[in-house]
Amino acid sequence: HGWEEKRPTRPTSTSRFSQQRKPGRRSTYQAAEAVQTNQATSVKGLIGAGQHERAEGRLTYRNDYRDRELKTRLGALNLRVPKLRQGSYFPGFLEPRQTSEKALVAVIQEA
What we know:
The protein is an alpha+beta fold. It is built from three helices and two strands. Helix 2 packs across helix 3 (about 100-110). The chain is elongated and about 45 Å long. About 15% of the residues are buried.
């Protein structure tokens, strides 16, 4: 016959379509968790004790949180930045001069 019906092909896992797909909520959640864990470790070192932990070397205490948003290609990450009673803590990856994507990569590499 020589005539064949052409059917559209489905994209495979290596297709350009699948590589450009937006990440899901799970990726965003995992990134936010990695950032929060990094912050908790930084604050623990700064204070001298973990959250709800008694230690003789404790320098100050946590005093609530500040809500901050970090925009990345994964989506907006809603972060809770710890406040301290004395002194201050502000994570370096939220510096305004640093792009959001660089900040996220730097935090995940540290973790």
